[in-house]
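Researcher: We're reviewing a set of sequences before deciding which ones to prioritize for further study. For each one, I'd like a predicted 3D structure that I can look through quickly. This is Dephospho-CoA kinase. If possible, include the structure in C-alpha cell form so it fits the rest of the review sheet.
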Amino acid sequence: MENEQSLERRQAVFDPTTDGGVGTRLDVFWSARLADLEVSRARVRAAIEGGLATVDGADCRKPGLKLRGGETLTLRLPQVASETVAEAGSLRVLYADPQLAVLDKPPGLTVHPAPGLPEGTLVNRLLHHFPGLREMAGERPGIVHRLDKDTSGLLLVALTEPVRLALAADFAARRVHKTYLALVHGRPDGKGGDIRLPIGRDPKYRTKMAVPHKGGRPAHSRWRPVWTAPDGTASLLEVTIFTGRTHQIRVHLASLGHPIVGDAVYGPHQHAAWKRRGGALARLASRQMLHAWKLSFIHPVLKEVRSFTCPPPPDFWRLLLLLGRRCQRVGLVGMPGCGKSTLLARFAAAGSPVFSADAAVASLYAPGGAGAHMLSRRFGDVALAPDGSVDKAWLLAGMRGGEKFRRDVMELIHPLVKGELVAFAEAHIRERTIFAEVPLLFESGWPQGEMVDMVVGVRCGMDQRRKRLAAGRGWDDALIDRMDGWQWAEEAKLAKCRFVVDNDGDTAALNAQADRILCELARLRREDLQARHQWLIDQGYAGPRRGVPSASPSGAGD
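Model: Here's the predicted structure for Dephospho-CoA kinase, in C-alpha cell form for your review sheet.
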C-alpha cells in the first residue's frame, strides 16, 4: 500500500462547460487539469488504474470513464523520488529565512528538470545552495510556482514541506499576488482592462497553449499600459494575473493582437518582422520580454505580508531605452543667400540624413512632378515649359506681379513639401539626428514642434548675401528685397532658433560652427538618455546602469 506521505492529493468538481464537455474521459480531465504541472497522461492513467482515484467518493480504476457533469473527483499522485543532482551555479537570492526564499530568476534558465533535461536548471542550483531541500520528495523540491525559461524575475521557493503545502494552498486560493512587466508589439487600445479567456492546449500543437473554442480552464489577467515608444512600435504593460495557467500572459496578450516582443511562439509574424529590423533592437529581443516584477504573499509561519519588487534585467530596460530614443529633427532657416545649403552639406558630410525643401520643390516642379501638375490645373498650360516642367520665368513674373498669386502658389505647394518632409522623417525615424533646410519653416504656419524639434538659424550680412545671390542666381537688388519681404525679418527668425550660426567668414569657420552644433546635439542626446533611464529607475522598470538590479522587500504596511 502506498505511504500517504508520498501521495499528493488533488480534488476537483467536473464542469462540462469549462472542462471539455459531457463525455470527457476521466484520464483526459486529469491530464488537462494537471497540465501546468507537466504531469503526463500515462502517469495519470497509472494512478487511476492503481486505485488512487475516486468519483463521488467511490474508488474508480477506469481511466476511460466518461464524465457527465457535477462529479466530485479526487486523484492521489505518487511523488517521484528526486534524483536531481546539485549544481554550484549562481543564484540571486533577494530574501531567505529558514522557511522560504525569494529569488530573481535570470532569463534563459529553466526552473526544474524535465524529461531530457536532468541538469542545468534552477532546481539543480537550489539543491546546492539549500541542501535541506533534499528532504522533500518529488522532481521539483521547493517549487510552488513556475516561470518560463525565458521569463525573468521573482520566484518564491519553499524550503520546508509544510511551507510548500501552505504556499501551494495560497496560490490555489489566489492569496498570492503577482504583477509582471510585458513589452508588447504595437499600441493596445484603451487604458487597460481585464482578459477573461479560458486557456487550454492548442489542438494542433501540443507544446502550445491557446484560447480554445470550447473548454479550457478559466484564466484572468488584468493589464495597464504605462509607456509606448515614440514610433508606436512597442508598449510596456503592467500585467496582474489572478490565475496561473501555463503561458497565460503570453496567450492573453496575443489574443489582444499585441503579442510580447521576442515571443516567436505566440507572435511569430511580429517576431519575424522585428528581427528583420536588425541591429540592437533585434539582438536585445532574443527572448520574450516578460518579467515577474512584483510579488506579494502572507508568510505561512510569520503571518506577515511580504512584498517584493524587482527591476527587470539589463536586456529588458536597455531595449526600452533604445525604443524610447527620439530622432532629433533639426530645421535650418535663414534669409536667401545666407549659406544654409553649405551648412546642410557639412551636416550631411558628418553622416546625418538631410532634407532640402528647395530640392524637394525642384523635384515637384520637374516634368511629371506633382507640383507641375497642380500648378497647370490651377493656372492652365501657361504654367508649364515645353518640357512639362514649371516655367520658372512665368513663376517669377507672377511672384513679382502680386501677393495673391504668391499666396495661391504657396497654398498649393507647401502641403506637398510638408508631405515630402514627413516621409523623409518617417524613413529616418531610427536615426540619431536629421536636418531639414526649410527656408519658410516659420512662415508656413506649421505648429511648433510638429515638423522639427529645434532650429538652427544662419545669419549673414546683407552685403555678403547680395554678392552671393548676384553671382549664384543672378538676382538684382530689387528681387532680393522682394524675396526678403516675403519672409520674416532675419532677427525675428533668429529669435526662435536654438542655435545661431554666423556665416560672414570662410567655409572653415562655418564648418567649425557646424561641428560645435553636432557636439551640442550629442550632449542633448546623452542628457535625454540619462533622464529616460532615471524615469525607468524611479518607476521600478530598470536597474542602475552598472551592477546588479536591486530588489526591495517590504513588510506589511508598506
